[in-house]
Design a protein that fits this description.
This protein is α/β, with parallel strands linked by helices. The structure holds ligand BES, manganese (II) ion (MN) and zinc ion.
């Protein structure tokens, strides 16, 4: 999609298929809406008196207004003016973008970001607008027949109407939002692809393709033999159950400016993504209902690839390294069995009491591998526990960290990018649940606090650096029905966090 700004003062003369303007519940109009209202002899105030309540995220289509060049004016509800916030603004942009896509428009103009908001500056509002438009235009068609694939004229051009003084800042925000949207859409696409297409090898190919596309990215894909030489016994034990070859993917972003001599290099930030391309549970097999959704068990990996894509597009001044342990978790004659003991790359032994707790088994070796970079921080992202959905639902990702400063930066980034997380505890008292009679510790800690004990397990591999863990089991995709599909979360949170560190 093409993003741009428009700086004309005469909004009523903008020629576009759809022009978005905002209204509040108390009958107040945004400055842009006021211009349109005057040009159309009060058409907007008229509908505000009658059929339009201006609830947040609602919209009303007004066609062919007299005195207005836009084919449609889309009046967007902004709720109460005193309560107007970054979140309401983002919701309004989403409502407009979704309308445009549903109406099969190819271009549109929004005035919404130009209006002041107490909780978000102009750049942030422009970013939210671009992120909303870019994501609304996403459409999954990779595995349909030809006819389905060619059907849609999609939103191709999206412009923000701003004042001349706002232009430079709006451009900056637009660029960031566009990059985030593309990262999000890549993560959604990878999540949505079926497991017979999106294999570990396929994910490795995506990393290589990104490295060809962006100069700042370098990809390396380790095969089973190389993973064996690294002694990743825990990761390999999960991979053994499937014929599909595993892959350990390394995707590195080196800042454009970092190559010059004399520039002191900051320590890198490492992102580790769970890449289980299908999780049947292994010998501790899952029930059949909704098992298809376990193709999404690589959404952590997808978010790492999406984030690195965005980071490269932005040209971020911070080294970022993505690590992805990728394999399938299937039952077979070579699969892990409950009671098996494996030796992780760290040397610590693990008693596998449930083969369905495989995410932590692949992540732990990647966390040990991360030590070699002497990272400033390591963040792992994983669809790790069903228990996290019970705790937080589909609203917040679960955040665990032993480092308060890192946790706070991630929470803040999540709020700023409208991709929130909620911190859960990670105390030594929970570690006791992982006690094992036959190994250094077990891979499960019983039903109580399942997300916490999973994080506790991971923490045993992270003593060398500041570390945080995002459990995205509830936020990475939407289940069932028409809404079913990858969300691309937490790409916005991660990109925003990395921007804050650069
Ligand atoms: N990939 C699942 C977690 C999951 C379940 C994510 C449902 C999204 C929806 C993970 O590998 C898993 O199976 N976890 C087990 C852990 C248990 C055996 C301790 C779980 O949550 O049931
Ligand atoms: Mn599992
Ligand atoms: Zn899993």
């Amino acid at each position: 999609m093409e993003f741009s700004t428009l700086t004309t003062a005469s909004l009523h003369q903008i020629k576009t298929a759809a022009l978005a303007v905002g209204a509040y519940t108390d009958g107040m109009l945004t400055p842009a809406a006021d211009v349109i209202d005057r040009a159309s002899h009060g058409a907007l105030r008229e509908v505000l008196k009658s059929e339009f309540q201006a609830k947040p995220g609602s919209h009303l289509v007004l066609r062919k207004l007299e005195g207005v060049s836009a084919a449609r004016v889309i009046l967007i509800g902004l709720g109460k003016q005193q309560a107007y916030s970054a979140a309401v603004h983002a919701k309004a942009e989403q409502a407009f973008a979704n309308y445009c896509v549903q109406a099969r428009l190819t271009e549109a103009v929004s005035t919404l970001a130009a209006t002041e908001c107490a909780t978000a500056g102009l750049a942030q509002r422009a970013q939210a607008a671009a992120a909303a438009a870019g994501q609304a235009a996403y459409h999954y068609d990779a595995t349909f027949g030809k006819r389905e694939r060619n059907d849609a004229p999609r939103l191709k051009k999206f412009a923000l109407s701003v004042t001349r003084a706002q232009n430079a800042e709006a451009q900056r925000g637009l660029h960031l939002g566009a990059a985030i949207a593309q990262g999000v859409n890549l993560a959604r696409e990878l999540g949505n692809l079926p497991a017979n297409v999106c294999t570990p090898t396929y994910l490795g190919g995506v990393a290589r393709k990104l490295a060809r596309e962006f100069k700042s990215l370098k990809a390396e894909v380790l095969d089973r033999k190389q993973i064996e030489s690294l002694k990743m016994g825990s990761f390999l034990s999960v991979a053994r159950g499937s014929y599909e070859p595993p892959a350990f993917i390394i995707l590195k972003h080196t800042p454009p400016g970092a190559k010059g001599a004399g520039k002191s290099r900051k320590a890198p930030i490492v992102l580790v993504g769970k890449g289980i391309t299908f999780d049947a549970g292994g010998i501790s097999i899952k029930p059949a209902a909704s098992m298809d959704e376990m193709k999404y068990d690589m959404c952590g990996a997808a978010s790492v690839l999406g984030t690195l894509r965005a980071v490269a597009e932005i040209g971020l001044e911070q080294e970022v390294i993505g690590l992805i342990p990728a394999c399938e978790n299937l039952p077979s004659g070579r699969a892990n069995k409950p009671g098996d003991v494996v030796t992780s790359m760290s040397g610590q032994t693990i008693e596998i009491l449930n083969t369905d707790a495989e995410g932590r088994l692949v992540l732990c070796d990647a966390l040990t591998y991360a030590e070699r970079y002497k990272p400033a921080a390591v963040i792992d992202i994983a669809t790790l526990t069903g228990a996290c959905i019970i705790a937080l639902g589909h609203v917040n990702s679960g955040l665990f960290s032993t480092d308060d400063a890192l946790a706070d930066s991630l929470l803040q980034a999540g709020r700023q990018a409208q991709d929130t997380a909620w911190r859960l505890p990670l105390e030594d008292a929970y570690q006791e649940q992982l006690q094992s009679n036959f190994a250094d510790f077990a891979n499960i800690g019983g039903r109580a606090a399942g997300s916490v004990t999973a994080a506790c397990f991971l923490s045993r591999f992270t003593s060398a650096y500041p570390w945080a863990h995002l459990d995205i089991a509830g936020t990475a995709w939407r289940s069932g029905g028409k809404e079913k599909g990858g969300t691309g979360r937490p790409v916005p949170l991660l990109v925003q966090y990395l921007l804050s560190q650069a």
